[in-house]
Amino acid sequence: MTGNISRRNVLRGAGAAVLGATVVGWATGCSTTAVGGPASGAASDLLETARSQGFLRIGIANEPPYTQVNADGTVTGCEPDVLRAVCKRLGIEEIEGVITPYESMIPGLQASRWDAIAAGLFMKQSRCAEVLYSEPVIVSTESFAVPKGNPKGIATVADVLADSTLKIAVLPGGFEEGILKTKGVPESQQVKVNEGRSGIEALRAGRVDAFMLPTLSLRALEDEKSDFEVTNPVDDAPRTGSGAAFRQSDTAFHEAYNKELEAFKQEPGFAEILEKWGFDASVVDGVTTEELCQTEG
Predict the structure, then answer these.
(1) pLDDT of 193 above 50
(2) R_g (Cα) of the chain, nearest Å
(3) CA gap 86, 94 in Å, rounded
(4) % helix, strand, coil for the chain, step of 5
């Protein structure tokens, strides 16, 4: 994703920022925790530590429908809801969410600021070289937000390449930034925005001609103004998807998680979570991490 909690890096009305990140409890009664110390699995077996302490700390975004932080500080969204369900199967009762920019998610994981990432952090070669991804939970498409009527006819990355005057908003460190870079779109045509609402405001102000983000993320940003539209999925953007990401050293946890995730996918609860957030669970059938990790970028 996109993503960008990051880019959604300020949580309005749901907690205070701590050193540029925000920690929020998964559920009522789950305490907040300051950022900075080692995460639960830094020096011991992650599964046993998380079970004994009762929670797993995760890096998240605040980008519905992938992740969402409610006004009371609780964490939800498609990825955290699936992660929580699988963690309960592993004997881990709660998860704590740490809001952080997408470009900081993997460095923060490697520095043990959190134990996993569940944020719509789409798989691609560079990321797969640095983390252990679970099997896919979401398979997603990309679109552009454009002014009503799409006056400049932006529907593909090729359209952007064909007109050097076009400015496209992207989230720093996001999958979309990687797509444009891989396709050869110059930096001069890319405008970096902090989060989803900032991208829409840049579009409304005429500072950009389009905003590239996952299709469902853009639809979630539609509001009563109805002054922009979301294009059909971009047909020259790669198919992508995401799952939970873990440190490369946490192989035992990764194996146990994948086992329980596969079992959970066979139960009605998995499809119910995806459908609640607008995803089609059947699209995930047969898609593997190995396949999605071949995406360039």
Answers:
(1) yes
(2) 18
(3) 11
(4) 35, 20, 50
Q: What is the pLDDT of residues 8-34, one digit of tens each?
A: 332 322 332 333 344 554 332 333 333
Name the band, by pLDDT with cuts 50, 70 and 90, for residue 224: low
151: Cβ contacts below 8 Å, ≥ 6 apart = none
| CA dist 127 → 77, 188, 259, 282 (Å) | 22, 25, 22, 25
| C-alpha to C-alpha distance for 234 and 155, rounded to whole angstroms | 6
Work out the angle at residue 1's Cα, subtended by the Cα atoms of residues 100 and 145, and round it to the nearest 5 degrees. 115
Cβ distance 168 to 191 under 8 Å? yes
Burial of residue 94, with CB atoms counted within 10 A of its CB: 0-12 exposed, 13-18 middle, 19 or more buried: buried
Percent of the chain with pLDDT over 90: 74
Are 59 and 98 a contacting pair, CB within 8 Å? yes
State how far the Cα of 119 lies from the Cα of 97, in Å rounded to an integer: 10
Cβ count within 10 A of residue 139: 22
CB 124 within 8 A of CB 181: no
- Please answer whether residues 50 and 92 qualify as being in contact, where contact means their C-beta atoms are separated by less than 8 angstroms: yes
Sign of CA dihedral 209, 295, 242, 249: negative
Long-range contacts at 186-193 (CB < 8 A, ≥ 24 apart): 188/164, 189/160, 189/164, 191/167, 193/7, 193/169
Q: Which two tokens stand for residue 205?
A: 């102000």
pLDDT digits (tens, 9 = 90+) for 110-149: 999 999 999 999 999 999 999 999 999 999 889 999 999 9
**Model's pTM, two decimal places?**
0.75
